[in-house]
Amino acid sequence: MNLNKDRLQAFYQVAIDKNFHKAADNLFITQSALSQRVMKLEQEIEATLIIRGNNGITLTSAGAFLFDYVRNIESLEIEVLNRIAGYSRANGHGNLRIAAYSSILRSVVMPALAPLIESSNGVHVEFFSRELRDLLPMLKSGEVDFIILDHLLEQNKLVCRKIGEESLIHIKSKRKRSKEAFLDHDSEDKTTFQFFKYQNLKQDNIQRRFYNDIYGIIDGVKLGAGQAIVSKHLISNSDDIEVVPYNNKVSNTVYLYYHEHRFLTDFHQRIIKTIIERSKIFLNPEINK
């Protein structure tokens, strides 16, 4: 039995977009046509692939297995076409979809990859800034190819590569009198509590305000709206911020994750190598001085 390519592509797009309407738009077909293709594919292989529920679309175990297959076929096809067309390793085509938490994406991942992206032709790039809790589901669902986390995962079928250390520091405004409150992303952000735990200091009476984005947090500190625990590399060149000294150094190890059984094109392998080699430049800006 040969699987119909159009039906596979329809299923794959729905699995990525988690929405039939969006997937239909991306494939330039009607939603009815898309639904028909997915339904016929399920009939063809005699298995349910997609479940529609109140919380959106989820894949069955059979759907997840087929999704991995189609994803690898897509990557392999790109690689074959690149090799046939004779693209060099420095100028390959490919897709890059990577998600990370905000303090790492803009200040480390994007600048680390900038030279590679600039030198590559025909590269489709998508960067996603998300909360830590949202990153693993994005990788599992196939929405992205790589994620960056600040902790180890006990997950089968994922490859974990260390890319560096992210030092955490306590900052306040140098120009204005800072409020006693600490600025965090949201109520689930435990960075401030964890920092003071490592310092063996009480955490019971910490007042918090929520600024959603790391760069909003830093701006809030500069304005005197509060203090914050942030990554050291984010404020290395700021004259408006004062660092509060502590005896104990606190840091998070930063990891790159991707699927173990994912077929990696030459372009993807260069992405991994570049992130690992160049991230330390931006995590430790003092090495460039």
From TrEMBL:
<keyword id="KW-0805">Transcription regulation</keyword>
<dbReference type="Pfam" id="PF00126">
    <property type="entry name" value="HTH_1"/>
</dbReference>
<comment type="similarity">
    <text>Belongs to the LysR transcriptional regulatory family.</text>
</comment>
<keyword id="KW-0804">Transcription</keyword>
<dbReference type="InterPro" id="IPR036390">
    <property type="entry name" value="WH_DNA-bd_sf"/>
</dbReference>
<protein>
    <submittedName>
        <fullName>LysR family transcriptional regulator</fullName>
    </submittedName>
</protein>
<feature type="domain" description="HTH lysR-type">
    <location>
        <begin position="1"/>
        <end position="60"/>
    </location>
</feature>
<dbReference type="InterPro" id="IPR005119">
    <property type="entry name" value="LysR_subst-bd"/>
</dbReference>
<dbReference type="InterPro" id="IPR036388">
    <property type="entry name" value="WH-like_DNA-bd_sf"/>
</dbReference>
<keyword id="KW-0238">DNA-binding</keyword>
<dbReference type="InterPro" id="IPR000847">
    <property type="entry name" value="LysR_HTH_N"/>
</dbReference>
<dbReference type="Pfam" id="PF03466">
    <property type="entry name" value="LysR_substrate"/>
</dbReference>
